């Protein structure tokens, strides 16, 4: 279960993204400072060539925002993203389009991610012709090729999206991204909306394509079992921060961050004989408008202590390629409350 | 896990439930001859792929389907067939005896009424509580479901609650009348695992405290494994298999159940291809002859294509509608 | 005659400014005569005058002064006496050149003096129109004291205030006025005149005017018995209402004439040559009109062919005038003679949305088309039409006129004489007519005046500055039990003798 | 609702008014024809017209006129009507209540007709009842207002004599009685618009999960309709109603003419035809104020009905 | 290229075509009737709509004049038929420009947002605080009565609805994943807007267009009633109804038949509108 050791293809440093919260008119009128949603807060992350990096975390923790910042759907507030030697956040015009060709995104919703008025063939051809991927004469052939690549028959080109099932639409979405022959695929909740049986079909497709086309994949999901199955490495996010990054094995078998531990514990096991009586974690996610000071997880953390409230823990390598942002693992060590592995 | 009370008369008996939905493209036979029983205090999981008829089944139990949808069969609750009960009497069962909660708490709660109002209307209807007494009771109920400072929260509107709190509020509303049976349609699908965990545990605790029956519709086998006593697997509008939860995971007796379990990630090795069930669910307007699962089934033989195999007892407390129930392997060790 | 009761009368629009001197419109004028009395009054046929507040008048031998004797015991509607001073003040106000549009009617008065109950008017020159002028609304006698007591810093402000609650000596007095909605006039208990039965006038307790702009609604309301009278019945519905046994559809004779006013100047405003500058063309157009057909079409048979530029109800109308018989052949010949063998293009302004204008002009389009005149109809709204008319920026337009005074001088001064309005803005000017008119304005002999007017009318007809069309009556529908109401040819609505019979 | 929010919205109206003032001022002066010669008619001589123009200050440069107009407006003086010779403010004061009464009355009738019928149509959707309701209102939508007005007048007024023909009456009761037909005319039009949207939003709400939840709670049908369905369905309707108040006031122009109602609609048309600048300016400004206030009220009511909207 | 994956069958070999509902067909049929009457009035009548016949004034319907004659002896049937041309023109011209302008502007400001949106929003506020009819009357008064000026007036006011509708829809569509995908695919903003957003955002405007067409005809009728609409002798239904109102008691046919024509047009537009709403709704 080892990740291919390769240089970072995408290097994210200190990425921060806030959104102005929808604010009441009155408070704006009164000149109260606008509240902001801290969607990403000082995120550091490397994506290595050829690897599958899983990103997990509770809803609203910033997974999609991160993905969108990487493809420049959102403009980040601070930080840098380097793609090879390109400064991604500074790209414009043709250079940005060139970057987007290399780094593609596939979307979650099988229903809204395809233009309902364009046939599958039109969708794919448009991508080909805008980027001049193929001379017009060869485009039809390429469309069929792409369709067969994702396991759809060539006739599919003439159909409209609504004639396909959810799983098939996700295949079309993948084909659309592949039309640009990208290096990196960012899959945001690619299979979350699908039934397990169909999910498995799409996952298999992704695995095979990655193998065949040498793709780097950023796999955003909240299904831990799936992330575990697919990823070489996993990043765990909480309230806009990366709290732990490590090779998959380490994250699932020896999670260090209390949040990672809680998350794993909360995921229902498939074994009816392994039932826990008490909830793995209590309390709700704090509002992203009001992120707790210091360590964002401290309000739900069973191990929180004074320092967690005042000082923000930074992501630190604790060996074995495992990085964690928790005061429990940074000197000076507290009263001895060590992490408990499940 | 509390065992179902055996011997006593079942809380709910469903016989030959059949639902037909007229649609522009033809009649949709959404539920076809579903039979099951539920004991007091028992948690029954209803699983299956999307479109298999789980929600339609659940809604039929309370006769919630609007006019052109036709429901046949019997839903016996305390000896009365809910499907033929006069509307007025039915209302005394709905909500009062049998509560129901839905998947999407955002859409299932009325956005223009406060949570308090929505609890209290149930209290007024079924418990005759009004005024202060109703307020008190409503706060108690919110408290019971683990919502902090329940008294002030009563005046909040659903949109002021977080997703998990909404789901708790919905449970509180359903529990207001202290039902004997709770129908839950994917109550945690929209939630994060951490909150899902809390909600499921809440349901189990309430089941224990109130000795309530619970039918839990879900398509997450993990939820089933963690929550249910018994499982009914649905496919193409029919029950394919019913069994105790351990039985099902250890010895599925239907090719479909087996396929579902085996298609889960984590069952095989890291980054190895999964084992999906090929194809997609059947079109309920044009059902194939014989076993509806046969076209996708790797075990299917000519025997599957004749008449549709009935749901038969194949082992103690274990029914299956699979011709090849005895040829199926046990599932591999399930991890995680 | 039955006494008492309220008559409800439907008007198409409300009055604007109930001041006898400063008003501008018929909407005021036609009502004012109920509220204010004049020294003399027009007779009901609109052709001569009768005594009013003055029981008698005498004109001096040199015709340069007039003495009027006030009727004894006359009072304003508030019970105060009408004095000679009120009369002088009122007439001075009415003839003040700074006041309103009508002061010209009393232009001949040089000064006014009073003695007891007589009023003496010293004149600048003999004025045959003066008796009629004194019977005209603007010469109404107003209560000087009450007017001066009205709030306001100056006369203009006082006039505005007073016009809101006018007190005069007419048969009625305004008691309530909700602008745009209704107006109620109550019987003036001090009114001097007696009816034909020798009893005090008016018979009615009150008259209520309801403002109902929509013709249909007015008629419906009348039919439903909510009104006892309604004015301006569309001519198209006269026949229908005539056959309604519950109603009395009356066509009061009027001085209203309908014509086409032409620009007689050789060039139009935009510099283009104007064929209508040629008298032959104008005559041809006159001959090419089938007036009988128009009367059927536009007035539904209620109209009457015009024989002169003035209506046959105007005093000194010349009954020997022939007008223009329908003669397309002659019209063609005249056009050919004028050099328009191949036809000619003309444009007429019409009031947009006016069904009458549309009917009239489209009919003319057809009739003229037969003699080679191509008529283009340009639709503009009334305000634009007036503005362009005043600026002489037109070639033809539909026109209409009603006399306000029982004398031919008013219409003649407007239509035939260059004067202040350029002969109805036609640009027409005939030196002989100018001379004849000047003469007529000082000629007190009715016979001689008649002869002068005959010449004027004949010369006018020959020059054809306008196209005569037809005269129309005032169509008023009354409930069967309404008696004694008249609208005189000048348009005044007289409720003084009206009564509601059982 | 916070008072300061309302205040803020009211303050926002001010710049809007300035724009409206400029627009209207320019617009009315672009209309060919001038008030004085229109008023004095064809016969008036040039001197008389010139004198009247001077009296009214219409001989001054337009920019000066505008300055004076704004200055007077700031003192709450809209000037005097050129035609009617009375202060515009007084005219509006007399007539606006009539139009407002009519508008509100029409809105009430429209809603009273639309809501139950829309619900009926929605509940019985795709049956003949639904078809009938929709058909009748469709008919109302495709006929001109004045035609409907005249038909109602002829039938219910003249023929059957149930209602007076035109007028306004003096007491509240009389207003209700006199304005019934005009309000019905306008209300029918409004109802036609409302029924369409309300029907579809009721249908939408009927399929909402919270309605199923309410049924699953065992609540009686009437309660579900009134408490759960209607309130939600009305949310969008309120906005639509607000947007249509402007249309109602506009429709009053015609209705008031047909029914001889002394409201501002008729006044405005007369003023436009008579080029009565001060009246046009005063009225359009008043309309702008009213419509703005209606929009504000709509927003406030909307916020009341829909707690998800937060203003403060 | 081959694949080892099990190729799932594409469902429903014959794509399920949603047939237009009968109501849409009826609407289209009615419209067809109207359009042929507008283009080839000669097909339906030989009589001129403007010729007077003094001999046949106010004749009730009979063989020679199936809809009777009006107060000028004109044939009502012929006027109704020729009126089709005018009224369809009114329906089209009162809506087409507002539609085009409003939709384009709406998609642009909805797409660009920020100041452009705010600016147009202020202008729209200014327009909507005037009651529609009032503003149109005022503008027509400025420009002079007649159809062309009515079109100008309606266009000056009518674009706001389309702007609103389209702007809102574009803003909603902008958030849809296919639009975001288009951006990630490196498509130019113009392409995203015109090829992807607009076709999906324009449906409500098209549906509204149909309602608006009948409203346009009615507006024409109202202006006609006030004398500001189509000018005589142009045969226009609204003006015909208005002109006929004086004869309602004696010659009902003058206003009834054009009234019927108005209704037919209104019903046709509305049926088409409902049908289009159904047909254009993207299928999911
Ligand atoms: N366009 C936006 N405008 C305002 N706030 C946003 C926007 N997009 C995301 N957010 C906020 O940023 C935070 C992070 O959102 P994000 O969508 O990245 O979460 P996520 O981890 O992808 O969650 P999920 O699992 O639900 O998809 C959330 O609080 C969200 O509400
Ligand atoms: N009101 C309805 N009208 C038409 N078809 C319906 C309706 N309700 C359900 N169906 C159809 O009936 C079938 C069964 O639906 P049901 O909602 O019971 O599935 P489910 O098992 O609950 O699926 P999911 O997991 O997606 O909730 C589906 O094909 C669905 O499309
Ligand atoms: Mg996300
Ligand atoms: Mg379901």
List descriptors.
heteropentamer; A: about 350 residues; alpha/beta; Rossmann fold; 8-stranded mixed β-sheet; 4-stranded antiparallel β-sheet; 12 strands; disordered C terminus; C: about 500 residues; alpha+beta; 21 strands; globular; binds adenosine-5'-triphosphate; binds magnesium ion
How would you characterize this protein structure?
The complex is a heteropentamer of chains A (342), B (336), C (502), D (312) and E (284). Chain A has a single domain (8-268, 283-329), classed as Rossmann fold, CATH 3.40.50.300. Helices cover 31% and strands 21% of the residues of chain A. Chain A has helices at residues 25-29, 63-70, 93-102, 120-130, 136-149, 166-178, 196-213, 224-230, 248-253, 258-266, 306-310, and strands spanning 8-20, 36-48, 52-57, 78-83, 86-87, 103-106, 184-188, 216-220, 233-238, 241-247, 316-317, 323-324. In chain A, the strands form two sheets. In chain A, strands 6-7-8-3-9-10-12-11 form an eight-stranded mixed β-sheet, sandwiched between helices. Chain A has a four-stranded antiparallel β-sheet with strand order 2-1-4-5, with helices on one face. In chain A, 51% of the residues are buried. By secondary structure, chain C is of the alpha+beta class. Chain C is built from 16 helices and 21 strands. In chain C, the strands form five sheets. In chain C, strands 1, 8, 9, 10, 11, 12, 13, 14, 15, 16 and 17 form an eleven-stranded mixed β-sheet that branches. In chain C, strands 4-5-7-6 form a four-stranded antiparallel β-sheet, covered by helices on one side. Chain C has a two-stranded antiparallel ribbon with strand order 2-3. In chain C, helix 15 runs antiparallel to helix 16. Chain D is mostly helical and 312 residues long. Chain D has 13 helices and no strands. Chain D has helices spanning 3-30, 35-40, 46-55, 62-74, 88-123, 128-142, 145-159, 172-178, 180-206, 209-216, 221-259, 264-273, 277-305. In chain D, helix 1 packs antiparallel against helix 13, helix 5 (88-123) crosses helix 9 (180-206) and helix 7 (145-159) crosses helix 9. In chain D, 50% of the residues are buried. Chain E is an all-alpha fold and 284 residues long. Chain E has ten helices and no strands. Chain E has helices at 22-39, 76-112, 114-128, 132-143, 147-175, 177-184, 189-201, 203-225, 237-244, 253-280. In chain E, helix 1 crosses helix 10 (253-280), helix 8 packs parallel to helix 9 and helix 8 (203-225) runs antiparallel to helix 10 (253-280). Chain E starts with 21 loop residues before the first helix and ends with a helix. Chains in contact: A-B, A-D, A-E, B-D, B-E, C-D, C-E, D-E. Chains A and B meet through helix 7, helix 8 and helix 10 of A and helix 7, helix 8, helix 9, helix 10 and helix 11 of B. One adenosine-5'-triphosphate binds at residues 21, 23, 28, 30, 48, 50-56, 219, 284 of chain B.
